[in-house]
Specification:
By secondary structure, the chain is mainly β. It contains six helices and 51 strands.
Length: about 775
């Protein structure tokens, strides 16, 4: 069963211990290792919600986490000997990562060895040459068997089959390995038995135990009474791990007192391990031990070589060579990313975890001690979580509108000489947060529209920008509704929500609405949305859609009656045509001209004042009744006009003014031919009666003069029935604002209460 001990590691920087489990090697797929949820104090639902996952230290994934149950199971069979060789303990390290919030838990699974390998001799037949003079108790080194298992499952002891001459003893090396020593128990006699054969068996400590065998053949040599002797029984040397091939490791030396072929020594490496044979070679004549391949401190730190010296007579001896591999800073640190948040909200507060990573250096000592830092000035920093575990966190607030993404380069450097370093670049993209309101390009937009312009015409375009991205930068435009009860100027125009195009909703009359303002709003698509406001000022451009309007003479009268005395000189003011135009500017500038007249040369009209004056002195030849048509025209394009008709009577005096005016009014409606016939009739009647009425006229004139003097004395002041100074402005028409009627001329007409139709008084205009 798996044994778990775990303490929670929080990314906020608190210290943590490693959870430790164990599982036998070569366990089947799906084999239960431990229940992570139980050890973490979480439920399966919490593991699933927080997306728990297993991140291995190395690339290969041997373990799998069931997010529903929290069980950690075997995903792929693991061979301890393949993963760790002879190293013990054999650990498979990994991390359990949880999100929301981001947490990391370290754990390791120890692979317990099973007895799946039997001891194996490299050579199935071992040949020893022993002189017959060898005394009992002499020891001989035998080739060792190899068992890749460890612990009790490794090779434990040797035994040999029954024979008369030899015993075997199991010895232990300094690295824990066991080898066999053959001990001569009884003196040999070549003449009696030239060769002794037996089987050696290597047995491990597994249950059940496994074993391997080899045949040992001992050839009894003729007497050679001196064996080679090494200068040292143990050679200790150190070799740098980056030493090239054929580098001399050590020179062993042995001597033999015998002469001739019995004194010639041959050196060889005893095959105690296949690895030694692949790594070292020896010159059989000189004893120089050289490298067959470069050494790697990270793979193996110590080698133990058995060297044998054999003379020509077959006698041999052996010594040991211990090779210590010295570490060289030949491995750069490695940055291993265990968790990375590639997208980060720009609203993330300082100390937000962006990535978790480990730094590993296979070297040892100072060569394996590492430090981490960041290159460049960026809003991130590195926090140490454990001995070789780090977290990349934010050091300050972020702003996507200034920098959208960061290439964060993590650099790890060791303390070797020369120092080696490695870098890994992490791409961190910032997610936009709606932290910027739209901004109008102008605080006040002024647009023009013509009056009477059809609905739907484009008046212009609003423009607002938002530095955010995506929906947060999508700007929509709208009108801000005015308070209840105010002029609904918002009903005059509309704003396209997407493009900001302003269009009019209906034609406007400049004379009613000359300009108006509305408030426009630009809102983004964020949640909650942010907005900005601007003022839209619409100016209505005047069009010449109003013709001049006559104030005097009134347009509803057929013809206005004016009296001009026969004695009127040139420039005499007859009347003033007054007109106004509701338009503005040039469209309201009025000009007057005489369109038609009975006597074209008798009258003239002021171009800008509208005053009708005599162009010359009135003569007796001039017709008593004059008809004038005055044309009033504005300066619009196209121009608009109106006409005023004036009936002018040329009189000697004003005694029958009202009668003639009334008559003129009636006669003005008849054709010109009828007027001339009536005038002829009056002349004939006058000639016939002139004599008879002459005396009567003198009497009437005298009586009339006396009566007029008496009536004037009795009349009250004429103010109640006359126009005062303010009467012209009291009719509710403000003509002063248009500039077309000047108060320079006012007319005063008074009628006495007793005059009736018998008297009309004509007065000159009152000049300012």
């Amino acid at each position: 069963r798996a044994v778990a001990l775990i303490l929670v590691l929080c990314v906020s920087g608190m210290g943590a211990e490693t959870a430790r489990y164990s599982v036998p090697e070569e366990a089947e797929r799906g084999s239960f290792v431990a229940n992570i949820a139980k050890d973490l104090g979480l439920t399966g639902e919490e593991l699933l919600a927080r997306q728990a996952r297993v991140v291995p230290e190395k690339k290969r994934q041997y373990l799998q986490l069931n997010q529903h149950t929290g069980d950690l199971v075997v995903r792929e069979q693991m061979d301890r000997e393949e993963l760790c060789g002879q190293s013990e303990p054999c650990l498979v390290r990994f991390e359990v990562l949880l999100e929301s919030p981001l947490q990391s838990f370290r754990a390791e699974v120890r692979l317990t060895d099973i007895n799946d390998h039997a001891p194996v001799f490299l050579n199935k037949e071992i040949v020893l040459k022993i002189p017959e003079s060898a005394v009992p108790g002499t020891r001989f080194l035998l080739e060792s068997a190899h068992d890749p298992d460890v612990g009790n499952n490794s090779l434990q002891h040797y035994s040999i089959s029954s024979n008369e001459y030899f015993l075997v003893y199991t010895r232990r090396r300094s690295d824990g390995g066991r080898y066999a020593e053959l001990v001569l128990d009884r003196a040999l006699d070549r003449e009696q038995q030239a060769e002794v054969a037996f089987v050696i068996t290597a047995v491990d400590g597994g249950t059940p135990p496994r074993s391997g065998t080899a045949l040992v053949r001992v050839v009894v040599l003729d007497i050679n009474d001196n064996i080679p002797v090494f200068t040292q029984t143990l050679y200790k040397v150190s070799v740098m791990e980056n030493s090239p091939q054929d580098t001399i490791v050590v020179v062993v030396s042995a001597s033999d007192l015998d002469a001739g072929t019995n004194g010639e020594i041959v050196y060889s490496i005893v095959q105690n391990s296949e690895e030694n044979l692949q790594t070292f070679k020896i010159n059989p004549e000189t004893g120089h031990i050289r490298l067959k391949k470069p050494l790697d401190y990270e793979e193996k730190k110590t080698y133990e070589i058995d060297v044998q010296a054999t003379d020509g007579g077959g006698l041999s001896t052996h010594c040991k060579v211990e090779v210590q591999v010295k570490d060289v800073n030949d491995n750069a640190p490695e940055v291993i990313i265990t968790s990375l948040t590639s997208t980060l909200s720009e609203a993330a507060p300082p100390n937000t975890v962006v990535a978790l990573f480990n730094v590993r250096d296979r070297d040892s000592g100072d060569n394996g001690r590492t430090t981490c830092d960041l290159t460049g000035e960026q809003p991130f920093r590195i926090t140490l979580l454990a001995a070789d575990a780090y977290a990349l966190v934010t050091s300050e607030t972020l702003d996507r509108e200034q920098v959208e993404e960061y290439n964060v380069t993590v650099r790890a450097r060791d303390e070797g000489s020369p120092a080696l370093s490695a870098s890994k670049t992490l791409l961190v993209r910032l997610l936009d947060v709606n932290d910027n309101a739209p901004t109008f390009t102008q605080a006040i937009y002024t647009m023009m529209m013509s009056e009477n312009e059809p609905a739907g015409r484009s008046l212009g375009r609003l423009s607002a920008t938002d530095p955010d991205a995506g929906e947060n930068a999508r700007v929509r435009y709208s009108l801000v509704l005015p308070p209840t009860g105010t002029l609904a100027a918002a009903s005059f125009v509309s704003v396209d929500a997407e493009s900001g195009t302003v269009r009019n909703l209906r034609p406007l009359d400049y004379e009613k609405v000359r300009a108006f303002e509305v408030t426009v709003c630009a809102a983004d698509g964020g949640s909650p949305p942010l907005s900005a406001r601007a003022v839209l000022h619409i100016v209505v451009r005047d069009e010449n859609d109003n013709a001049p309007v006559l104030l005097h003479p009134p347009p509803d009268s057929s013809a206005a009656g004016e009296l001009v005395p026969r004695w009127a000189p040139s420039g005499y003011l007859v009347a003033k045509v007054v007109a106004v135009d509701a338009d503005a500017g040039q469209n309201a500038w009025l000009s007057y001209e005489l369109a038609k007249a009975t006597e074209p040369g008798l009258f003239r009209v002021g171009l800008h004042s509208g005053e009708v004056r005599t162009a010359r002195a009135v003569t007796e030849r001039d017709a008593a009744r004059q008809r004038l048509i005055v044309l009033v025209r504005d300066r619009g394009q196209p121009p608009r006009s109106a006409t005023a008709t004036l009936a002018v009577a040329l009189v000697e005096d004003f005694s029958d003014a009202f009668h003639q005016l009334g008559h003129d009014s009636a006669g003005g409606q008849q054709p010109q031919v009828a007027e001339e016939e009536m005038l002829t009739t009056y002349l004939i009647a006058s000639l016939c009666c002139v004599s008879s009425l002459f005396l009567l006229s003198v009497l009437v004139l005298t009586a009339n003069t006396l009566c007029r003097a008496r009536v004037r004395a009795e009349l009250p002041p004429p103010s109640p029935s006359c126009y005062a100074d303010g009467d012209l402005a009291s009719d509710g028409v403000g003509v002063g604002s248009t500039g077309t009627l000047s108060p320079a001329y006012r007319y005063e007409m008074c009628l006495t209460s007793g005059s009736g139709r018998s008297e009309f008084q004509f007065l000159r205009p009152i000049l300012p």
